[in-house]
Amino acid sequence: TPFQVKLMVIVAYDVRGVIVCHFVPHRRTVTAQYYRDFLLRQVRRGIREKRPDLVDSAIILHDNARPHKAECVGRLLRRWGWEELEHPPYSPDISPCDFHLIRKIKEPLRGRRFATREDIANAVRQQVTRFTHGAAHPEADGIQRLPHRWQRVVTAAGDYFEGL
C-alpha cells in the first residue's frame, strides 16, 4: 500500500557535504517562482554561511525540470554570477540525484513508515547531519567524478552509455 505520509525534500550539496536541506511545504507545488524565490535564495544563504568563497562564483547543476529551466531562474543565476551547467535532455548519466549522496541519505530510511511529516523531516535531518561537516566525504565521491562523467556525455553527444 502507498505511504500515507509524504514529504518532498530538496538537497543542495557539493563535495564537502550538504549545504541546504529544504522541506517543501505540504501541498505546495515547486514552480519556477517557488524554486527561485525560496529554494535558490535559501541555497545562496547556505553557500554564504558554509562556502563563502563560492557565493559569487557557484556552478550549479540541476536537471531539466521545468522550474529549473524557467527564464526567471536563469536571470537570477546570471545576476548572481552563477554558472549553470547544461544538462543534456534525457541524459541520466549526469543526473544530480545519482551522485551517491542522495542514495546514502535515503538508504537508512528505506522501508520505514512514518506517522507524520515532522517524523520524516527529523529522520532526514539526522541522516543529513552525517554529511554537513565541511570536509570532503567518501559519500560524495560521485560528485567528484562529475568532470569525467561530463566529458563522457559530451563525447557521446548526449547519448546514453553504460559503465560509469
Short description:
The protein is an alpha+beta fold and 164 residues long. Helix content is 40%, strand content 10%. The protein is globular.
Tell me what the structure shows:
This protein has 164 residues and is an alpha+beta fold. Helices cover 40% and strands 10% of the residues. The protein contains seven helices and four strands, in the order ββαβααβαααα. The chain has a two-stranded antiparallel ribbon with strand order 1-2. A two-stranded parallel sheet has the order 3-4. The protein is globular. The model has no long low-confidence stretch (mean pLDDT 80).
Rg from alpha-carbon coordinates: 16 Å
Mean pLDDT: 80
Query: Terminal Cα separation, in Å?
Result: 34 Å
Strand content: 5-15%
Identify the strand order in the major beta sheet. Answer: 1-2
User: Total helix count?
Assistant: 7
Structure summary, number of beta strands: 4
Question: Share of helix among residues?
Answer: 25-40%
SSE ordering: EEHEHHEHHHH
Largest sheet entry = 2 strands, antiparallel
